[in-house]
């Protein structure tokens, strides 16, 4: 059983493709999924992606081998992806509920 690990990959050329990123990371880890982040309106690449690899050892290998590597005039930043903490549904309901006036 694998424990997928998500890493942040930033600073790559804006014209890079998913396949080129997989080829870059492939020698160090097995890539499970890849998501290049693009502008919603223009669909242009924002220069970073989230890559899921199959294990922590592979993620460590990628970060050690490729972090601060130059590609053209850009420098890669590779680090663990930090999970986004979403508010709980209860907190959202409390925010939306109108306050009763104090008597």
Task: Describe what you observe in this structure.
The protein has 103 residues and is α+β, with helices and mostly antiparallel strands. The protein has a single domain, classed as Alpha-Beta Plaits (2-Layer Sandwich), CATH 3.30.70.330. The chain contains three helices and six strands, in the order βαββαβββα. It has a four-stranded antiparallel beta sheet, covered by helices on one side. Strands 4-5 form a two-stranded antiparallel sheet.
For the termini, the CA-CA separation is: 59 Å
Widest beta sheet: strand line-up: 2-3-1-6
Major beta sheet summary: 4 strands, antiparallel
Number of domains: 1
User: How many β-strands, per DSSP?
Assistant: 6
β-strand amount: 25-35%
Mean pLDDT: 88
What is the CATH class designation?
Answer: Alpha Beta
Which descriptor suits the 3D outline? Answer: elongated
Helix content: 25-40%
Please, what is the CATH homologous superfamily? Answer: RRM (RNA recognition motif) domain
Enter the CATH topology name. Answer: Alpha-Beta Plaits
Report the C-alpha radius of gyration, rounded.
Answer: 19 Å
State the CATH architecture.
2-Layer Sandwich
Number of helices: 3
> Any low-confidence stretches, pLDDT <50, length ≥5?
none
Query: What order do the helices and strands follow?
Result: EHEEHEEEH
| Structural class based on helices, strands and sheet pairing | alpha+beta
